[in-house]
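= Paired protein data =
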Amino acid sequence: MVEGTKVRVGILGASGYTGADLVRLLVRHPNVEIALMTAERKAGMPIGDVFPHLKNLNLPDLIGIDEVEWPAVELDVVFCALPHATSQEVIKGLLHETKHSLLDEMIVETTEDLASSFQGEVKVIDLSADFRLRDVDTYAEWYGREHGAPELQHKAVYGLPELYRDAVKTAALVACPGCYPTAALLSLVPLLRGGLIQPADIIIDAKSGVSGAGRSLKEPNLYVEVSEAMHPYGVGHHRHMPEIEQELTVAAGTNVAISFTPHLVPMNRGELETIYVKLTEGQTAGDLKEHLASFYADETFVSVLPDGVMPATRMVRGSNNCVLNVFEDRLKGRAIIIAAIDNLVKGSSGQAVQNMNIMLGLEEVTGLEQVAMFP
């Protein structure tokens, strides 16, 4: 893509928190024109009436998905910020309507084959969980329904840029990782690939702001239920577990099962993960830190903090950054990795924009230069 040109972008599900953050980021992106925004419950409303902070931005009104005139709308990129178990059918229908050849029956043998099969197609970036799990049976087990577009699943690229950048470059369907997997995988994949930690007995203690639970009205998310308290949820069976295990298994070359417990904390946005690992023979916490620092030395959005500095959500709030550090455990042969991200940015919408930039051949940081907000 030539710098200075604009692509026409659609946001499906613009009335949720991730949709709002997509608008916030894209409206100042120099290569983007937001041409379409959909929302079912808010259809017919200006986005400024749904989110007052987005007023006066000269954006199209929200419409229902059924009102979209495919392919006349002529979009170049579609962000799908719809609820889980919805994106598969919508994306399959979208690709049929726009008369692209995404549903061909070619056999994909390598990542390069997969990517090249999509060249010239509309770019679809899905922020839901609908295309994250490569095995459709695993999806059915964890999401309680059959996969709605199995013919597309093997063509979806897992969109964690720092780990799969080359595949993302030529993809047309990218599945953005979940927020918990993003922090966990950025912390663990380089160490497993390098053989510095053992794939067994990985423990992830994760905490997220309430926006991670979405914008729909739910009793456990009411102010009086959340304020001045913290509680675990999805104990032993959270849907991000198979996603994390999928990528750790690829990195380790052997099956990986994790212990993972998420907690909801009384803040709007932000995520902190404390990860406990076993070292391989001869490795130290310092070796892990050095390896991560080397692995991410050329990355804009991931950084390893100086010795002794504790990652905190206040360091990344509103930004696309991830901060990491490694500490020695008092238990011999173990180390503690701590990671912080903004669940709505690096954990969702910011990462989606980062993927779009890569897919379009733009500078990866375009539209994502925001400095973290503090206090």
User: Anything to note?
Assistant: The domain at 7-177+346-360 is CATH 3.40.50.720 (Rossmann fold). The longest helix spans residues 345-360. The CA atoms of residues 10 and 36 lie 4 Å apart. The mean pLDDT is 89.
